[in-house]
């Protein structure tokens, strides 16, 4: 059997094998018919992954069984660790706790190690329990290199070289990959990098509350720019530069003193001007100050007069309202009196008629 793989084909093979192998597809009875029937049609059947597919008619070898047990124990240990980390309180019911499951998984792993299957099955059955995926990947690479070497030697010598074959006489390559474990490893690496960056920032002091006078203008710049800025500031502290700075400070201080004196004089002049204006205003109102008490008394008297006028107006309004009510009552009484008079007239007419009729009857009876 000769295997010829280019670099691109080898990379494609490794990328395909690095996918998740937790499930398998069954090509024995595919069903892609419509979904009119009650039963659900699912195309290819799928199930949990096994080293030898179900119904293939091939029995597991001891090496394959050993590898399967190691992988299952590794998965059981990881699941128990996950459950143990997620469990906050232990239940009082009698059942296996995550701690007991972890102990039993460790005992099973110890039993596999103590079985010395490595010496019985050969070096090809050796699996690193700490990193089984990496061990299987390295074994696959070794077998591919051996297959390529055997192809080259057979082409040179003209004789085929016997390779490791399976029960069907074919070369077996096995690769167990756990994409979720790789994701966890990448997340752990990223967390470690972020932690180191945080420690570095704390050591350097990138926070705004830790900036000193020398690093006032270095925020948001690169490290090289910050170093150059600090170097320029440090170089400005030599003796020659300090003498020049001191001379300039002396001149600036003298100018500041002169400005302070002129400012005091200007402020005094402005204050005097405001005081004189205020005195003029007081002098203008001095003549009117004698008449202010009389004006106040007059205003008080006018206030009382206004209050009385307001009360008089209210009384007039009340009187007008009362007069209107009396007029309305008189109108109603006149109407009622007219109705009573009309009724009395009608009643008198009726009484006269009744008396006349009564006289006629009396006359008839007397005859």
UniProtKB/TrEMBL annotation:
Residues 147-166 are annotated as: Disordered. Keywords: Coiled coil, Cytoplasm, Dynein. It holds the Pfam family Dynamitin. GO terms for cellular component: cytoplasm; dynactin complex; dynein complex. InterPro entries: Dynamitin (IPR028133). It is found in: Cytoplasm. Belongs to the dynactin subunit 2 family. PANTHER family: DYNACTIN SUBUNIT. This is Dynactin 2 (p50). It comes from Haplochromis burtoni (Burton's mouthbrooder).
């Amino acid at each position: 059997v000769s295997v010829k793989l280019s670099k691109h084909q080898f990379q494609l093979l490794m990328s395909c094998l690095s996918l998740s192998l937790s499930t398998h597809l069954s090509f024995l009875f595919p069903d892609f018919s419509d979904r009119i029937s009650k039963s659900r049609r699912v195309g290819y059947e799928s199930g949990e992954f096994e080293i030898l597919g179900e119904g293939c008619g091939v029995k597991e070898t001891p090496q394959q069984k050993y590898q399967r047990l190691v992988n299952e124990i590794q998965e059981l240990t990881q699941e128990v660790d996950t459950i143990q980390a997620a469990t906050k309180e232990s239940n009082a019911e009698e059942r296996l706790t995550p701690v007991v499951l972890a102990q039993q998984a460790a005992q099973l792993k110890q039993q596999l190690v103590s079985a010395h299957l490595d010496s019985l099955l050969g070096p090809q059955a050796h699996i690193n329990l700490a990193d089984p995926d990496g061990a299987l990947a390295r074994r696959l690479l070794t077998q591919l290199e051996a297959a390529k070497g055997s192809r080259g030697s057979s082409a040179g010598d003209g004789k085929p070289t016997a390779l490791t074959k399976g029960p069907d006489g074919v070369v077996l390559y096995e690769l167990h990959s756990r994409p979720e474990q790789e994701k966890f490893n990448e997340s752990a690496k990223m967390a470690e990098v972020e932690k180191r960056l945080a420690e570095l920032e704390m050591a350097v002091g990138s926070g705004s509350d830790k900036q000193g006078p020398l690093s006032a203008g270095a925020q948001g710049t690169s490290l090289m720019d910050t170093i150059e800025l600090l170097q320029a500031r440090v170089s400005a502290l030599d003796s020659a530069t300090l003498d020049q700075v001191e001379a300039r400070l002396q001149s600036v201080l003298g100018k500041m003193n002169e400005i302070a004196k002129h400012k005091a004089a200007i402020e005094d002049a402005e204050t005097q001007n405001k005081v004189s204006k205020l005195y003029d205003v007081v002098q203008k109102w001095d003549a009117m100050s004698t008449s202010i008490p009389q004006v106040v008394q007059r205003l008080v008297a006018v206030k009382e007069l206004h209050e009385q006028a307001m009360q008089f107006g209210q009384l007039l309004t009340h009187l007008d309202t009362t007069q209107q009510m009396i007029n309305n009552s008189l109108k109603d009484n006149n109407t009622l009196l007219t109705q009573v008079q009309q009724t009395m007239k009608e009643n008198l007419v009726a009484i006269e008629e009744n008396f006349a009729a009564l006289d006629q009857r009396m006359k008839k009876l007397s005859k």
